[in-house]
Amino acid sequence: MSETIFSKIIRKEIPADIVFENEHVLAFKDINPKAPVHVLIIPKVEIPTITNINGKEHSELLGQLFDAANSIAKEMGVDSEGFRLVINCGKNGGQEVYHLHMHLLGGRPMNWPPG
Ligand code: 5GP
């Protein structure tokens, strides 16, 4: 699968409001936020979607994504009230960008079930 706009954000070829970065993970504010806090947390390596994840190969990276989510939630002040992590997968999951990403949504109560 070809690269997405997120690869350009990783390479800093297009601007993004970056809130977290380390060697393997990048996080930036969603361009079309659905909550007061809406951050996208992505691996720097290109993994299109959840079905491309291999536990053996990616377990450390997945841990780093969750560590980043916890750091960002704390930094953005939504850790105590709570927040939601969402990963959309494929057509029925509502995925638009095929570079694995976790949505961190917070700053308001979330509805359940999601639409
Ligand atoms: P998906 O539907 O694939 O789970 O979510 C993709 C998300 O990426 C959407 O919430 C959309 O607003 C966000 N997005 C798409 N293009 C860009 C962009 O160029 N910059 C930023 N910051 N977010 C983007």
What name is given to the CATH topology? HIT family, subunit A
User: Radius of gyration, Cα only, in angstroms?
Assistant: 14 Å
Uncertain segments: none
Q: Mean of residue pLDDT?
A: 97
What is the CATH class? Alpha Beta
| CATH superfamily heading | HIT-like
Shape assignment = globular
Strand content: 15-25%
Element order: H for helix, E for strand: HEEEHEHE
Number of domains: 1
Sheet with the most strands?
5 strands, antiparallel
Secondary structure tally, helices: 3
Summing up helix and strand content along with how strands pair, one would put the structural category as alpha+beta
Number of strands: 5
Identify the notable features of this structure and list them briefly:
HIT family, subunit A, 5-stranded antiparallel sheet, single chain, 115 residues, alpha+beta, 27% helix, binds guanosine-5'-monophosphate, globular, 5 strands
